[in-house]
Amino acid sequence: MRPIDFFDRGVRLFGNAVCMRAADVVLSYAEMAELTHRIAGALQNRGIGPGAAVAVLSPNEPLAFAAVLGTMRSGAAWVPVNARGTVSEHAHLIQLTGCTMIIAHYSLAEHARKVADCVDGIAVVQFGGPDPSLPDRWLAPRDTLVAPLPEDPAATVALPGTGGTTGRPKGVVLTERNFETIVTTFNACLPYPADHRPVNLVAAPMTHGAGMMTFPLLPLGAEVVVSAPDAVSILENIERYRVTQLFVPPTLLYMLIDEQRQRRADVSSLRYLVYGGAPASVERLREAVSVFGPVVTQLYGLTEAPIVCAHLTPEDHALAFDSPQYEHRLFSAGRPTIATSVEIMDEAGKLLPAHTSGEIVIKGSVVMAGYHNNATATEEAMRFGWYHTNDIGYRDEEGFVYIIDRKRDMIISGGFNVFPSEVEQVIHAHPGVADCTVIGVPDPKWGEAVTAIIETKPGAAISPEEIQERCRRELGSVKTPKTVEFWTELPRSPVGKILKRDIRQQFQHGKQHREI
């Protein structure tokens, strides 16, 4: 089935029920369906359909999700674009994926036009504004019904971007087959009774895991509540709308724990409090179970194999806290899900036994078809017939998978991927910088805090705030270093390579150099 077919099942069974709500917009399944047909018809009238790609640039918003579903109904591929990114980042991704249109929220319309100025042949259409409706001038008529396209398991449904060793994204090809696996596996991991309509709260960006976790709930007639990404709003919405499920990165989970200790909101409706996207503190997980009950659960996935590769269940969490001999499982990503194989492999392609470290590799129908127009990168990632995650880990005798290090130096801060080389390039461009490196330092709030360590040129006077402002302007707030330190000399190997491992060890041992 296509993703839009799962949504249409929800429309047939729950047409008059609320599909998605936000502060100023409430759409039923029938109303959402009408919008998706009008959007799909408008795209097809412009010659946009199978083989094309459309970017949706918006904060979390029901009409943005209608644009995503409408794009899928047209047969075009959805390109998720993080609303917090920069013009240059977005232009690169849109050019990379071959987008022909950006559907932009009115608050980002000017930004979208700047992106379009950087790429040839891009149309920009706007939605929202003081009148929270999509402009009729580019939508197809209200009675439009777009004929369903034939199923094609290999058809491209989405083209999310993901970084590489250079920090520049590659386009990940996700197909109908991938989405069908995500929907069925997700619902096997987090089941609901047949007569129970889920209420899913979305606070993290819908371009992220939170968006992927929305699709599996649509055929169940779920009500999706769009919330501001702060603990107070989330807790208020859980209580008001009797939310049964939400996804949060660890950073937001910690904020929810702290706020709930004071607020004591009624969260008894929660069935699944899903976390993922970054390592989580075991002590904070213990607090989460204490505060929210036995509903805490983890899903592990990557852009190339989204959300349903491994699962640490609510029962796993409860058992680990009740029985000390199982507490180590909380350091794991869980066990492979029903449709996914997760193993540990050495450099020669040999699968390794339990408690032997190697690269985590994945096989199954959740794994991407490949990187868009990049056969070399696809071949490298899929060698020996397995997707290589570039994570180093091991598994135990019962199949729990443990991530112990990253093969590359990617930082996960607040659930977002940050590639050090991209930040380093911006810092290097400062005329007073002689050399620099960027690492992730364990942080109770962010999971990892982006940290810059800089050698200055003789006589140069640079403040941390100056570096942070430069990075914020060029890269956005997520990739801006939380801490900037100036060292007289960075540790280097005999061939002059900066030794990031040595720097990390100094931070771990509390022997940070102080600003000079």
Automatic annotation (TrEMBL):
Note whether Calcium occurs among the keywords: no
Q: Keywords, A to Z?
A: Ligase
The residues covered by the AMP-binding enzyme C-terminal domain are 422-497
List the SUPFAM superfamilies hit by this protein, alphabetically.
Acetyl-CoA synthetase-like (SSF56801)
Does this entry carry the keyword Transport? no
Question: Under the GO molecular function aspect, what terms does this record hold?
Answer: ligase activity, forming carbon-sulfur bonds
Q: Where is the AMP-dependent synthetase/ligase domain?
A: 8-372
Recorded superkingdom: Bacteria
Q: Which InterPro entries match?
A: AMP-bd_C (IPR025110), AMP-bd_C_sf (IPR045851), AMP-binding_CS (IPR020845), AMP-dep_synth/lig_dom (IPR000873), ANL_N_sf (IPR042099), ATP-dep_AMP-bd_enzyme (IPR050237)
Q: Which PANTHER family match?
A: LONG-CHAIN-FATTY-ACID--COA LIGASE, MEDIUM_LONG-CHAIN-FATTY-ACID--COA LIGASE FADD8
The record's similarity note reads:
Belongs to the ATP-dependent AMP-binding enzyme family.
Protein name in UniProt: Long-chain fatty acid--CoA ligase
> What organism does this protein naturally occur in?
Nocardia flavorosea
